[in-house]
């Protein structure tokens, strides 16, 4: 008798967790989506996560209402079993869709190889062709890149580098983020002469990004491929962090869903 009561309590807690879990998962997804949407561009991932988060939120609320009704009525019925079956189905569908979004995010934000170390410099440089084609397409063409850089310019704060580093040795020893090293100064391959962090004396080098460098503080290296790679490097890290935050509760949700579904089938078979 005591064992049966304990089993019923465990089952009750398990089902309650199952109904509440989509609600908690939806909150995590929406928070991650808002965090991504605060970036200059999220490559459409934030919009998809918002849609999934709202769907999971509605599903979680309906699940909580159904659980409350079931406890208030206190009886088993074919209708309640049918509603529970539909709840299992839709929770599984949305969990798989969210898992698909996470897998997609990880797949497109991969970087083939390692960043290039720069001799005598503490920071590294990225190459545009090492990012996925899907990401490179997002920064190709002025009509795509110009709005992004207009949004990014205040946050890069290139002018602060002039105040922070008064010599080339100090600058080269600094661990600059990819946007600072890619957008605020010419590429190391140009071998320009240091005047200040955002002011360099050009030489005869015109290959690659060297021709795109400008001492105009409104331009600097904003049109360089190195600036695009810096942006992509920052965004991929941001997307992967958000995806990892979503992945863990999604896997927990799927694990709990499978366990409760097996228990639900065994309970109805009995």
From TrEMBL:
<keyword id="KW-1133">Transmembrane helix</keyword>
<dbReference type="Pfam" id="PF00335">
    <property type="entry name" value="Tetraspanin"/>
</dbReference>
<feature type="transmembrane region" description="Helical">
    <location>
        <begin position="12"/>
        <end position="36"/>
    </location>
</feature>
<dbReference type="GO" id="GO:0016020">
    <property type="term" value="C:membrane"/>
</dbReference>
<feature type="transmembrane region" description="Helical">
    <location>
        <begin position="81"/>
        <end position="106"/>
    </location>
</feature>
<feature type="transmembrane region" description="Helical">
    <location>
        <begin position="48"/>
        <end position="69"/>
    </location>
</feature>
<keyword id="KW-0812">Transmembrane</keyword>
<dbReference type="InterPro" id="IPR044991">
    <property type="entry name" value="TET_plant"/>
</dbReference>
<comment type="similarity">
    <text>Belongs to the tetraspanin (TM4SF) family.</text>
</comment>
<dbReference type="InterPro" id="IPR018499">
    <property type="entry name" value="Tetraspanin/Peripherin"/>
</dbReference>
<feature type="transmembrane region" description="Helical">
    <location>
        <begin position="242"/>
        <end position="262"/>
    </location>
</feature>
<keyword id="KW-0472">Membrane</keyword>
<dbReference type="GO" id="GO:0009734">
    <property type="term" value="P:auxin-activated signaling pathway"/>
</dbReference>
<protein>
    <submittedName>
        <fullName>Uncharacterized protein</fullName>
    </submittedName>
</protein>
């Amino acid at each position: 008798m005591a064992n049966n009561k304990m089993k019923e309590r465990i089952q009750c807690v398990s089902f309650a967790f199952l109904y509440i879990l989509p609600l908690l998962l939806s909150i995590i997804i929406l928070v991650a989506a808002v965090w991504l949407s605060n970036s200059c561009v999220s490559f459409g991932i934030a919009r998809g996560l918002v849609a999934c988060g709202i769907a999971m939120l509605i599903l979680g609320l309906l699940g909580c209402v159904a659980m409350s009704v079931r406890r208030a009525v206190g009886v088993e019925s074919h209708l309640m079993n049918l509603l529970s079956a539909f709840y299992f189905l839709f929770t599984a569908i949305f969990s798989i869709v969210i898992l698909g979004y996470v897998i997609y995010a990880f797949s497109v934000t991969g970087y083939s190889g390692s960043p290039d170390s720069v001799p005598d410099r503490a920071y590294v440089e990225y190459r545009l062709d090492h990012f996925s084609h899907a990401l490179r397409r997002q920064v190709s063409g002025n009509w795509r890149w110009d709005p992004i850089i207009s949004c990014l310019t205040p946050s890069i704060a290139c002018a602060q580098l002039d105040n922070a580093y008064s010599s080339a040795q100090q600058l080269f020893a600094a661990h600059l983020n990819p946007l600072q090293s890619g957008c605020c100064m010419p590429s190391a391959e140009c071998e320009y002469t240091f005047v200040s962090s955002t002011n360099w004396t050009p030489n005869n080098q015109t290959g690659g990004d060297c021709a795109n460098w400008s001492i105009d503080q409104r331009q600097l290296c904003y049109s360089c491929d190195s600036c695009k790679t810096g942006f992509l490097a920052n965004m991929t890290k941001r997307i992967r962090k958000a995806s990892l935050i979503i992945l863990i509760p999604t896997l927990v949700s799927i694990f709990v869903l499978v366990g409760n579904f097996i228990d639900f089938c065994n309970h109805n078979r009995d």
